[in-house]
Each structure stands twice: as structure tokens, then as C-alpha cells.
Design brief:
- The protein has a single domain (2-168), classed as 3-Layer(aba) Sandwich (Rossmann fold).
- Helix content is 41%, strand content 14%.
- It has 7 helices and 5 strands, in the order αβαβαβαβαααβ.
- Helix 3 links the parallel strand 2 (37-39) and strand 3 (72-74).
Length: 169
């Protein structure tokens, strides 16, 4: 991937579901390309149970503007973040695959059914599971998952990126 991106003279965004390997790829590319890596998680206001609206955009924009070289911007919902920043970039989408080659998060991307139908299915499964288990937490992880599902259905980064990186689990 670094060889392919070595001639790119614009910012690079790295996108994918949480746990896909975005941070790892970002660190490798930053080292090999000699570029600053900006991890979106660093700019989060904690405890809000959401992602894009919880980012400290003014600070993030300042960091990008101060960089001596085009940056690598890594995190979930990164196309939406780049849009809010007015940042045009080359996009890389990371997929985490099982050893059999199946994409671990593909079940959340049935574009024909839509995000809200998938979210309702998840809520129903959670309601059924809750009948047999203790509640786990305050729901902030659920809110984040739903935000990421909605983002994927709106921006379709898994279909529209310039490059794809498949990581086998």
C-alpha cells in the first residue's frame, strides 16, 4: 500500500469499521511515507456516545493546517469528517476479513434494506437477548455502532474509496 501511495501529494484518509486495522495501517503508512498521522480518536470529547459531533473540529483543523506535509487522517466516519473540514483527500478503506475471506462487518451494509431497517433488527435482537441476560452498559457503544451504520449507508465508503486494504483476522 505504501508503494502505491508514495507518489500521492494530497492528504490520505483511512476509513473502516472500528477494529478493522485503520490505526495500524495509518502508523505503517505514516512511517513509510514520512507523513504526519492524525488519529481522530485523539480529538474526541469523551463520554458523548457519538463520534462526528463529539470531535473538536477547530483543534483538528488547526493541527492539519500546521502540518508541514499532507497528513494521513485516520478514523471511523472519516469521509464525513473530511467533508466538514473541506478536506479533499485520497481515500483508503480497511476491511477486516475472517480467515475464510468473509468480511466481518458486511452484515451491517445491506444497502437495499437501508440503515434504519438494519438498526431495528439489531435492537430487536438486543431486546430478545436482554430477556435472558443482564444489561451490559449505558448504550453509548450501541449509539456509536448505529452512527457508523448510518454513515456507511449515506457515504458508502466501502464502495467509493480510491483504495482498499483487506486485513485477515
Amino acid at each position: 500500500m505504501a508503494t502505491v501511495l508514495s507518489d500521492v501529494d494530497s492528504p490520505i484518509t483511512i476509513d473502516g469499521f472500528h477494529g478493522a486495522g485503520k490505526s495500524r495501517l495509518g502508523k505503517v503508512l505514516a512511517t513509510r511515507l514520512g507523513r504526519p498521522l492524525i488519529e481522530l480518536d485523539v480529538y474526541l470529547r469523551n463520554g458523548e456516545g457519538r463520534f462526528v459531533e463529539a470531535l473538536r473540529f477547530q483543534e483538528l483543523a488547526g493541527t492539519i493546517a500546521a502540518a508541514a506535509r499532507p497528513v494521513i487522517l485516520e478514523g471511523i466516519c472519516v469521509l464525513k469528517v473530511a467533508e466538514k473540514l473541506g478536506l479533499r483527500a485520497i481515500t483508503v478503506y480497511v476491511r477486516k476479513l475472517e480467515r475464510e475471506g468473509m468480511w466481518l462487518r458486511e452484515q451491517y451494509l445491506d444497502l437495499e434494506r437501508g440503515a434504519e431497517a438494519l438498526i431495528e433488527d439489531i435492537r430487536e435482537k438486543d431486546r430478545l437477548a436482554a430477556l435472558h441476560e443482564e444489561p451490559e452498559d449505558d448504550g453509548s457503544e450501541e449509539g456509536l455502532l448505529f452512527e457508523v451504520i448510518r454513515y456507511h449507508h449515506e457515504y458508502r465508503p466501502h464502495l467509493s474509496s480510491d483504495y482498499y486494504f483487506d486485513r485477515v483476522a
